[in-house]
Protein 1
Amino acid sequence: MTIIGVGLIGGSLGLAAKQAKAVGSVVGYGRRRGALHKAVSLNAIDRYCMSLSKAVECADLVVLATPVGTYEKFLSMITPYLKEGAIVSDVGSVKGALVETLSKLTPPHAHFVGAHPIAGREKSGVLAATGTLFRGCSTIVTPTEQTDPNALERVSALWEKLGAKVRTLDPFEHDRILAAVSHLPHLLAYALMETLHHPRIAPLDPVQYSAGGLRDFTRIAGSSAEMWRDIFLQNKDALIETIDAYQESVEAIKKKIMSEDGDGLIEIFEGAKAIRKKVLES
Amino acid sequence: MTIIGVGLIGGSLGLAAKQAKAVGSVVGYGRRRGALHKAVSLNAIDRYCMSLSKAVECADLVVLATPVGTYEKFLSMITPYLKEGAIVSDVGSVKGALVETLSKLTPPHAHFVGAHPIAGREKSGVLAATGTLFRGCSTIVTPTEQTDPNALERVSALWEKLGAKVRTLDPFEHDRILAAVSHLPHLLAYALMETLHHPRIAPLDPVQYSAGGLRDFTRIAGSSAEMWRDIFLQNKDALIETIDAYQESVEAIKKKIMSEDGDGLIEIFEGAKAIRKKVLES
């Protein structure tokens, strides 16, 4: 297996796959020698390769684990070197049109399978990688009508061996769901931080009085900026639709406050408790 | 000391004050005998009293620790029974006009001092109370020109003994700051949960794919609904102003996504990191 991009997710994939003996040797490709060297010493990869062609030419399975905005570029670069029957997969938080694009880019002698392990930490980089990151998490695979069933089976089996619960979704449905449960929450947290810079708020220097409420939100702000830029841009359509629904919810709550509708607020809070219960059970 | 309302905050205040030997005996008032009985067995109060007059008639210090929407009612009910020189304080998350109202309601032979320990947990009720809840947290006192300096000193000294860092703010400035760092974050979390009930989102059943992003937010939904209803309604003006600033921030991010302004997004994410750093240092 070759991992393109040995950061938090790529590094954790290597660590977990090696621990589970789920693959043969693990090769890492990246741009920074220091980080790759670190990945070897952490046992996340067996060896690294700073030449893309050499990194992929012997691989049965190549996993794209760079920010999603770079997948197209990397796949274009590696196609000439993919061996017969090679499988290309990914770990991206966006699927939809991207899966279509990557499937089309994959040469006829290879197979593309979209996958997304729903796992992450507030830290990024290979130093934050752990071999248990995917244990108990959901990994969504997003086959299309063109997806090779054997390749799909191979990718699913790998994630299952790493302890993930593998589930199948249509690529576009995946994006709408992730917009709601992951991309929107991140966007809200960023918007909250941005509000604290607002000219009407910042002069109060509120941050020095930060309470638990704010602390929970700032955790998200520790994530990789490049990764989230790519996710927001790649999942533009589903995310905008979700933001609009969210803005309606904020306006609805605002109206209840303005009209002092206490019972209406309680109703919303009880609805939130129901969601919490479902999340804790999921 | 008499505590009106022995829930998470009232119970923790009793526990901490008794552990620090900061006050004489601690009397608890409440409506539910079972909870009061529990509070005694947890050592949060020395004894309970279900008659308001009897609960306060011997107290040097009476602390209101019910939802903020009930302070006015409770203070009106206890004024005839307050002894000469008694201090009335509170633990409410809203100050502003409420401090004015409560100060005016306090009879001339007693003193009102507004206080707000910025502490909380995702659980409510006396079973969640701990004697260390206020250690290292900020407690804001909100004196006005009419506040008796000795009473202010007494209340400040109590919170310091419990390990809190006591800080002074104008009651209205307090409300604007708390709207930004606490009330708005809670509102956003509730709005997010409400979005998951949105007719365009709910059919996807997204919650079963919940990621870390969503989990962080649902913690907030475990808080007391009555408490948050009262906070939102009592801090209406500052909160609406803050919601408007926030909606502008969401719109700004939305625009950057729509115009595919990746650098603009990165700028926002970096700003968020700066806030995170400040929060972690505060």
Protein 2
Amino acid sequence: VVSVGLHLLVDLHGSDPVRLKNVELVKTCLPGAAAKCGMTAMGPPVLHQFPGQGVTGVLVLKESHISVHTWPEHAFAALDIFTCGPADPRKAVDFIKQLLGASASRTVTVDRG
Amino acid sequence: VVSVGLHLLVDLHGSDPVRLKNVELVKTCLPGAAAKCGMTAMGPPVLHQFPGQGVTGVLVLKESHISVHTWPEHAFAALDIFTCGPADPRKAVDFIKQLLGASASRTVTVDRG
């Protein structure tokens, strides 16, 4: 058995629906979150705006990936961060939580490997 | 509290290292896995080959996303599938497990929301 890294699944509740529809905000927050914990993006984020609804954003990292999916109608965002190496993914979580204006969060942490 | 979908984190052990280095195989397996459970890709997969090492592949779906990260040196692949809606993500897991030749798997399922 080998441990390759930590995978955090973070449910963010009570976020601002206007921010959760804002694809430009999600586009900015992903590289910003990676930078906060010294992770390296392997390209630009992949983004998809569902017309009048939520946003999907994924950033592939040297250390694995970050994804955000939003549901403005539920003031909810689902975040996952998978990091290999010494980076502390909790800093990325705090950054995105603040940027989306979430009032509550629940994190499930899984040691992958 | 709202449930938006299931997020499966699947550790695949005992995979063939040659397959785990094969970016073309990963490129094929992601849309194939999505098709197996009737999910819709929102574009081509994003791929990264670490020279002489593993592969990262991410496919953004209408129903959320699938990612695969491989470690040929550990005969290991880390898979995550986040699906919203009626699709059964277990069919996608079985498809990728078979394609990568994994002999064992461990799945953590998280109800997101």
